[in-house]
Design brief:
The structure is a homodimer of 232-residue chains.
Chain A (H helix, E strand, L loop, with lengths): L2 H12 L9 H10 L1 E5 L4 E3 L7 E7 L2 E6 L5 E7 L4 E2 L1 H6 L6 E4 L3 E7 H10 L1 H27 L2 H16 L13 H8 L3 H13 L3 E4 L2 E4 L2 H8 L3
Antiparallel strand pairs in A: 1-8, 2-7, 3-6, 3-8, 4-5, 4-7, 9-10
Helix pairs in contact in A: 1-2, 4-5, 6-9, 7-8
The structure holds a DNA duplex (30 and 30 nucleotides).
Amino acid sequence: MNLNKKIELENCFANNALFRRISKDEIRELSNIKQYHSYNKGDIIYNEGSRMSGVYCVDSGIIKHYKTGNDGKEQIVHFSKNGNLFGYRSVLLNQTACTTAKAIEKSFIFFIPENSFLDLIKNNSDFALNIIKLSCEELGQANQNILDIAQKNVRERLAEILLFLEDNFGINEEGYLNISLTREELAGLVGTATESVIRLLSDFKKDGLIEINKRKIKLINTNAIKIISKNF
Amino acid sequence: MNLNKKIELENCFANNALFRRISKDEIRELSNIKQYHSYNKGDIIYNEGSRMSGVYCVDSGIIKHYKTGNDGKEQIVHFSKNGNLFGYRSVLLNQTACTTAKAIEKSFIFFIPENSFLDLIKNNSDFALNIIKLSCEELGQANQNILDIAQKNVRERLAEILLFLEDNFGINEEGYLNISLTREELAGLVGTATESVIRLLSDFKKDGLIEINKRKIKLINTNAIKIISKNF
DNA sequence: CGGGCAGTTGACCCCGCTCAAGCGCGGTGG
DNA sequence: CCACCGCGCTTGAGCGGGGTCAACTGCCCG
């Protein structure tokens, strides 16, 4: 734990809406006890069902949160990127993790021990309110997700997911999505079979809606995709 | 607003885990400003997309929370029963309601204005923590729901829903579920077509798993239903 | 008695899942 | 350096779960 890392944490927190109202003292307190870890692509931060001893805050990278069905198929329910907090649900409810968290690219993550996190919530009502808002936002997204999976067909859902990915992770200078998922992961996000994702992506490409370069996807005709997604 | 109602509110709060740690003063404050409303079966408390001016706490009755798909089909994402708080998501995020709330039976509900609710959160860290836990619980359920709808077939999901209803609402002296849903509502909960629910209920009945009397359902062979639901 | 709504049943058929085979490519070891 | 292996990706064929449509019944209520 060197000074450099401590500064990074303070930066992360200072730039993070979640931590905006916490005092310098509180940040210093957090800085003294937090840990900084790096994870490689594919590394698991924690498994569904494991007991948690603290919460995590992403400094850089992308984390996928998924549940595993009875047949072993992954259902991705959420992503975390820089500035995002995760793992708080299990800590607050004192339950085991209800999802597995896995890095889908090289990621750097802060770990905040349970007690420090809970103290911060108890002593700082602004922070508590931010955590409430955070979980409420995730709840709203989850409810929307339920509606989509229950009522939209796979084509519509895939279109929606592509728009979501562009919205949430942005595009690089060449126009490609700033997130790289395997076809299987896309399927696990859409809630369908890998082959269906492949066929539909191929359709979208044929219709000039997207460009595909290996795992990199570029949205060409966003309007048409929006219409397909049926989100108004 | 008579004294009777005030006492009811205090009882409701006193018996409610959510409000357990709030002081007598705070309860009195709430009692002075709260409103008490009754809703008949089918009455809408608020519509998806409407702006909220406070939160609701169920005294008695059952509220269904659903989103409406593009084709008008309802997807039920949650129920509220006595002691449950709802509407807090929109108030906290200052967003319009993301679901419609409708009474499925005669219900009595307290209304707590936005400001009182927010003040309580800011001034009482125990209450804030309870709200956090509440939304975290709903989030966990929503994630499980996503997995189920994405990966289980209709038969498995219907079995799971029946068990959930028994668990959550209990049974009356005759063994029937303490919640009465139309086939269409059941379909909107399972995420399928009404006809599919009807056929599967009929199958379950034929196999001696359940008894049906109009809208009343009795679970006979809970173990077999649990096996069908594939929840271990 | 008639209208309307919830429930039921049958017929049809299509979306999308599954299985199988083949391809491309990067890594590894001989 | 090449051969091989394995994994991710792709494509085709087949079929079955379940959605849709239509018709009918029963029941409530005006």
